[in-house]
User: Fold this.
Amino acid sequence: MPKNKPKKPVKKAYYWLLRKNNSKMNIYSCKSELNTSILSMLTR
Assistant:
């Protein structure tokens, strides 16, 4: 991680964390959707 200049580091880090968490959640939701679809195909 690059060191931020002491002007507005908090906001930048906060938004960066938000973006990271959002991408993680998106990947997780995609995986769970895939799993549910596979399960439904198997149980049919």
